[in-house]
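Re: the request from the purification team.
They wanted to know what the chain is likely to look like in 3D before they choose a buffer screen. I agreed to run a prediction and write the result into the notebook, where they can find it.
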Amino acid sequence: MVLETTTLVDRVPLPSVRQARDKHRVIDWLALFQGTCLVLIETASFAASTLLLVLGLPLFVFLAVAGWDLTALFAQLGNLADHYRTAEPVARRFFAQDLQIAFLIASGGLALLRLPAFLHRLDRRLSEGSPRHG
């Protein structure tokens, strides 16, 4: 019995004469730089808007619970701060860990929900500027 293994390198087609000639074509550095900048800007705006949405959600919930009254909101926040201040160090640590875990879950979940639309928008924006796609 012959042991036959196929790796990813084995699946790469061998270069033909035309591919060898195309290998010496000039790289369009400007288009590469512009595409990289576009990807970085879009990714940064996606990350910033996701974080702002996640950080604004607790404020929205507190305002909704307070009946859209700022006086009641600050009274609730003062009550929470008093309980936090008088709590034992172990309870404070667990509360801080719970907040961190909730933040990570909320930001990760929202990012996953928004990711398909972001990738579609990024693909559309990248193909707009490329003469090969349009």
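For the purification team: The mean pLDDT is 85.
Please add any questions underneath this entry.
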